[in-house]
Amino acid sequence: MSRSFGAGLAMAGAAVLVTALLGGRFTAMGIGPWYDGLRKPSWTPPGSVIGAVWTALYVLIVVASALVWSRSPGSPRAYAAVLLLNLALNAGWCWLFFAARRPGAALLEIGVLWLTCIALVVLAARVSAAAAAMLAPYAAWVAFAGYLNGNVANLNR
Prior knowledge:
Blueprint: H1 5-30, H2 33-37, H3 47-71, H4 77-99, H5 103-125, H6 129-155
């Protein structure tokens, strides 16, 4: 059975939009005096850069997921399950770090998030090299975010 790319865009787009809205809401809860008062490494990107990177990554996740959806010879259930877990962890990290103000717990959670990013790349590669290549920057950014999170947690013990 052939699946359409458009249907994949719509489904992945809806899931990513919910993640972005939740993540943005949770992040907004922590931005301000608490976050500004944290000690951060000198190489911490400014918020505008972080926002731009996440926007680009979310677009890549949607397009890559639509490719996987439309090109899977069988059911893309494993990919879809990992994607939903990944997006829940993505929003959950924002809640842990910003809303709950628990950088240490967020660090543990981002490790699991990164593993799901790697799983998405591997699962996508089975269907589309282009989709896997689109997801690789997401895995790299989450690894960077984890390193940054670890430094923030360490600096603010």
